[in-house]
Amino acid sequence: MSQASRTPGPAQPVGRPASGDPLLSRGEIETLCAKAARGAGMTWGLAEEAGFAAGWLSARGIDGPHALIAHLSWAQGLPWQDICPRVARGNWTARGGGVLCPVALGATLCDFCELPDATLGDHGLTVGPVSHPAILLPFLAAMAQRLGHPIDVSWPGGGVAIAPCGGIAGALTGLVALDRAQLILNPGDEAPDAAPPGLRRECSRETLDRLDALALKIAVPSSETSRADAGAGHGDND
């Protein structure tokens, strides 16, 4: 890929909240984020994937919880089927014609990555636009592991390379800053080294409060009203 730097940078936080905010373990982040995703209307299966993604990012110094709550806040109330991917060789788009959910996209890419519709091919696979595309990184690392080679990701103005081991090189700060972007995935040929994952990461109080508010929606007493309030009010289908 032309736009991804091939030299891994130092392991340093990207989008890290201010010092003094609560420290959470990866397990605590994954549990809270999964509950929040479920409270926002995801199925439990995808909510667990969302929690995994937030924890994976946090372990690598990226503010995964903040990216996830920003995506969930944008997606709440949207018809779920509209932000899931329509699978077509060479170009995956949202079923509703708008912006894709990175969790649904990532899970589907992992499921389809060895099938013809997900082949990266000579011209790559175009996906999106994708909401908060940094959330896609853990799924691309898993995809790279299954395919046995790095994956290069480009967007207008930048690019990163992702190794099967989870190493990332390139314009990572630029990717984290994107609210949405169309991405092009290509086979990579040079694998970045993986930085050692951290044990505990800061989570801003504001992000924590917003995640807690969504997570509480799955704890309300079961009734027609509470079920309607605990998500987007759509079916529990992937």
What would your notes on this structure say?
The chain is of the alpha+beta class. The chain has one domain (23-229). It has 8 helices and 9 strands. It has helices spanning 26-39, 44-59, 64-75, 102-112, 137-147, 172-177, 205-215, 224-229, and strands spanning 23-25, 85-86, 91-94, 125-131, 151-155, 158-162, 168-170, 180-187, 200-202. The strands form 2 sheets. A 7-stranded mixed sheet has the order 2-3-4-8-5-6-7. A two-stranded antiparallel sheet has the order 1-9. Strand 6 (158-162) and strand 7 form a beta hairpin. Helix 1 packs parallel to helix 3 (64-75). It is globular, with a radius of gyration of 17 Å. The chain starts with 22 loop residues before the first strand and ends in a 9-residue tail after the last helix. The model is unreliable at 1-18 and 225-238 (pLDDT under 50).
Per-chain topology:
Blueprint: E1 23-25, H1 26-39, H2 44-59, H3 64-75, E2 85-86, E3 91-94, H4 102-112, E4 125-131, H5 137-147, E5 151-155, E6 158-162, E7 168-170, H6 172-177, E8 180-187, E9 200-202, H7 205-215, H8 224-229
Parallel strand pairs: 3-4
Antiparallel strand pairs: 1-9, 2-3, 4-8, 5-6, 5-8, 6-7
Helix pairs in contact: 1-2, 1-3, 1-7, 2-3, 4-5
